[in-house]
Amino acid sequence: MSATLLPHLLAEKSCVEEFLDLLGQEEQAMQEGLFADLTPLTARKAALLDRMTALDRTRESAQVAMGFEPGRAGADAAATAAGAAAQEAWAALLQLAESAKTGNRRNGAMVHGHLDFTRNALHYLQAAALPFYGPDGIRKAEGRDGNAAGAGCSRGGGPRHCRHWHQSGPARRANDAALVLLVHQVGERLVPTGATSVRLASRNATSTTEPAGASMRILIAATAAGLSFAASAAGVQSVSRLAAGPGNVLFIADWKTARVHALTLPNAPQKPAGTAFNILDLEPLLSKQVGGKKFTVEDMVARPGTGEVYIALSHGAAKTPALVVVTSDRKTRRIDLKSAKTTSIALRDAPTTGYRFWKDTPERSYTVTDMKYRDGALYVAGLSNQEFASTLRRARYPFDAQQSVTSVEIYHTGHNLIETRAPIRAMSFASWGGKPYLVAAYTCTPIVTIPLEDLKDGAHIRGKTIAELGYGNTPAGMIAYTKTEQGKTQEYLMLLNFERGASAIPVSQVEAASVRPGIETLVPFGQITGLEATSVPLAGTMRLDNLDDQSFIVLRRRLEKDALQLVTISKELSFRLTDFISEYAFQEYGFKGDPFQLKNIKPRQDMMLTHEGFADQIKPAQ
To answer: Which residues contact 477 (CB under 8 A, 6 or more apart)?
Structure first.
């Protein structure tokens, strides 16, 4: 085993030693006032980012191949099993990382010492949206106001209490004014002469600022790179959720490395609304793309306007991730993740324990439970390693050094608890009163609204519980859509559930419920309150998305036939006629002589039969 792991450890050790040398050069340059020398050092650090990340992932892959879990505990066990030489190299690597972290903080303190000389440049730096270099050497996101959202803190006799992060304005500004760049003034121009922010974190039980990912991850955030960098999607070790981004972008959440990748897809022709999917035997088509191996569907998303549907799978004993694109003509194609280029961002404070829910599901797999893109930002719901684990992250796209992390608590109407751990399972967006809101669904099934303006980095907020839609249920997804009724376009949210089919919820009802006081008392099991949602016949549906203005695309396990299917369903009716054997299906049935059926039923049935591929079974009117 030593021969398998040792070369990777030695390569990482050499890379950290090179980084330590750069820190020494940076320190000397600042001591001697040679600020212009910081620019090439920044470039060298940015180059190290790709190298360190690649080495770290390669070593962790070797660790997993040896049969050990990813993360610090797995790394310790793998090094021990690999023999004395590997164990010694691993210990040296951890010690070097700690030295690098200490040196980085020292350099950060030196930068902070120049604050008085550069205070006039602060507003310029903030306007430039560059990453902040804090007094402890750790990158800070600018603009953090530290507000704990006042009323969102549970107090008094509540099950848990909120950490209060409130600060006065001057104190907060002083804390956040940790200097990013050293600048000097030439005439009336402010010229940035060096911009380096470094964060090194060796894995240890007490670290709360370490980047989530492999066993020991070293990240360098420089002006040119931020937290985003060009990489091969071959680094994707798992897929939990997908989300469509702007243009040709597809976001992929990788829970094992706690990263989100932005994959740029090739151009595809636009297709008009009305494309019909009727793939009633999807399983063999997907199985062929993964070499006939057993697979699990992880997520599905439609690429807007193209008629393409992307399905994330994990297959084989190693749960290898795969991404397959499917079109209505039954063609499937696997995306080559090894050659695809992406940019990515590390999710801060990801879960690091080896805990498994019910001895089976890793807690870390809930790092991302839902993910949606809106107005230039990616919103990511899931868990963190913090005391208040339920977390909403927000990252601007294209990715940069900015990342907002907000912890969320709610009152759970069925459990009669203030809950801070269980994450949002499905979410979407809606606006009313001139303000945008996030609408979230939790397990078992409270509905919560959160003003987007409350999602500030470091804040702890309280979502407003506005409804309870049923016990014993896990939400599978939530999408926003519109439907025209009696000539008027109405906005809806479709909440898909694993145990309860689906619910169509008018946004007007969500608005009305959100204006009322939040629900803060127990709702007994079996009662529905707060919203009058319409139950939609989508039992067995695993994932649902908007295909176009007319149709949903539905990935389902057809329970009656035990078949995996990919089909379209009209937004007007929200079911497929051919799923049912009813009076209308019998050969002997006819519409002749029944004015009600001819006016109200037959036109809809004719449309559905055409859309579902059974136009030849349309019955005559006479």
So the answer is: 370, 426, 495, 496, 543, 544, 545
Give the span between the Cα atoms of 471 and 473, in whole angstroms.
6
- Residue 36: what pLDDT? 73
Q: Rounded distance, CA 238 to CA 254, Å?
A: 5
Closest CA to 478 of 538, 550, 527: 538
pTM over 0.70: no
State yes or no: pLDDT of 164 exceeds 60: no
Give bridge partners of residue 119 from the DSSP assignment. none
CA 225 to chain centre: 21
Q: Are 17 and 24 in contact (CB under 8 A)?
A: no
Place 233 in a pLDDT band, splitting at 50, 70 and 90.
Answer: low
CA pair distance 434, 331, nearest whole angstrom: 44
| 217 pLDDT tier (thresholds 50, 70, 90) | very low
Pairing of strands 417-419, 426-432: unpaired
| Contacts of 71-79 spanning 24+ positions with Cβ under 8 A | 71/203, 71/214, 71/215, 71/352, 71/354, 71/364, 72/203, 72/204, 72/215, 72/216, 72/352, 73/354, 74/215, 74/354, 75/203, 75/214, 75/215, 75/216, 76/215, 78/1, 78/5, 79/5, 79/9
Cα separation values, 239 from 300, 432, 614, Å: 11, 34, 36
Enter the DSSP assignment of 428: E
The dihedral sign for the CA sequence 147, 150, 152, 157 = positive
Dist CA 143 CA 419 (whole Å)? 28
The values of phi and psi at residue 619, to 5°, are: -85, 145
- Look up residue 427 and give its two tokens: 């979410």
pLDDT (0 to 100) of residue 462: 97
